[in-house]
Design brief:
The chain is of the alpha/beta class. Helices cover 30% and strands 20% of the residues. A 7-stranded mixed β-sheet has the order 3-2-1-4-5-7-6, sandwiched between helices.
Length: 244
Amino acid sequence: MSLKKDLDNITYSASEDSVYDADGHPFRFQRQKYIPKIRRIQTLLGAARGWHILDVGVGYGAFLKVLEEEGYRNLYGMDPFPVSLEITSRHTNAVLRQGRIEDENWPFITDMFDVITCFDVIEHLKEPRVFFKRCRWYLKREGLVIISTPNRSVFYEMRNWPFIGIPDNQITHINVHKTAYWIEIATQEGYTILDQWLGEHISHLKYISPILNKLSEKLHIDLRRIPGLRQMEQSFCMVLRPSC
């Protein structure tokens, strides 16, 4: 019997059937999360599908699966958890390797990738700076790094408010910071920031999020595109390129 959840992976609380539907496709919210990032890759590198892309910290492989459904084929994934990799292998043809970001050597050859992605992972690291250092070894000269991490805004702090917030009970979220922290690390490690934005969805406030969703549906507009409301979005994203 195939396992539906990696109990050893305490950094990822999802189950397989909360990521994929009965036909093995990522749910709509997964596509909403990842398609904007893919569009940014296409804007910077072009529409070709031959880029070599490594996803670091695959979860259960939803991003890799969305890439496949978008026509990409040279896909790779790395994760420290064997069962998570096993679950991912049921949904994608990507080349998967076990490894930790902190490892001195990743299980790939250097200068291999056009794009390295890392979504909702670096906040789990004791020393996030190591990710930026390692990426430089495995990126091609004009390669891109795309990351996302929780946005520690005032709205994130509201998660701890009684009756309003949904607490962040992920005990491995040991490095959740404001956007300036990540910008500083990236620039100190020799990257140029090509793009940055707040994204994904507002999910950590019990009443505000459903109200905004209802209004958005009724008015047929995306209320999160309104500048003030955008600050409520839960994720900070960056596209980086090594400066030299």
